[in-house]
Design brief:
The structure is a single chain. The chain is α+β, with helices and mostly antiparallel strands. It has helices at residues 11-18, 22-29, 32-46, 96-105, 127-135, 147-152, and strands at 4-8, 51-52, 62-63, 69-75, 80-81, 108-113, 119-126, 144-145. It has a six-stranded mixed beta sheet. Helix 1 (11-18) crosses helix 2 (22-29). The radius of gyration is 16 Å and the shape is globular.
């Protein structure tokens, strides 16, 4: 898989297939909770040898041919978070131990900037970057970063 690439869709074609408007397609596919299913599968099908995790609760989304586990996340208008999914949402709090355990279990994150749909920029971020950003206080207290900060600063600082 390349370190940075773009995926594109024909939203008119999708709208025709679903019998909805292009606006409906755009609204649906710029919601990180909804689009992740499609992004994960497209990444798998476009990268021979990659596999989906065996279940939603597996702790990762994609398995690379070398056995490395990757988490797929969306960069939304609100930003992107690097902590475990069970630490995100109403009434849930960031937990450093769970965060470190999550990072210890995966090779990295594959981030898709869905705000630009139907053209989606994708960033492959090895976990060492996230750890470095966390130690350097580049991430928020809950391991979340704004879209602007990720694109303007952190995306330029990804090391392989």
């Amino acid at each position: 898989m390349e370190k940075r690439f773009t995926m594109a869709w024909d939203e008119e074609e999708l709208a025709r297939a679903f019998r909805v408007t292009p606006k409906d397609v755009r609204e649906y596919l710029t919601d990180g909770r909804r689009v992740s299913f499609i992004i994960e599968r497209r990444l798998m099908w476009e990268n021979p040898g990659w596999q989906l995790a065996p279940s939603e609760g597996a702790g990762y989304d994609l398995l690379a041919p070398d056995g490395a586990k990757w988490e797929v996340r969306s960069i939304t208008r609100q930003g992107v978070y690097f902590n475990p999914s069970n630490q995100v949402g109403s009434g849930r709090a960031f937990n450093e131990e769970g965060f470190q355990a999550k990072l210890g279990d995966i090779k990295g994150f594959i981030l898709s900037d869905i705000v630009g749909f139907p053209v989606v920029d994708v960033f492959v971020v090895p976990v060492e970057n996230v750890l470095r950003w966390h130690v350097g206080n580049a991430l928020g207290a809950n391991a979340k970063v704004s879209r602007k900060k990720f694109l303007d600063i952190l995306a330029r600082d990804i090391r392989f």
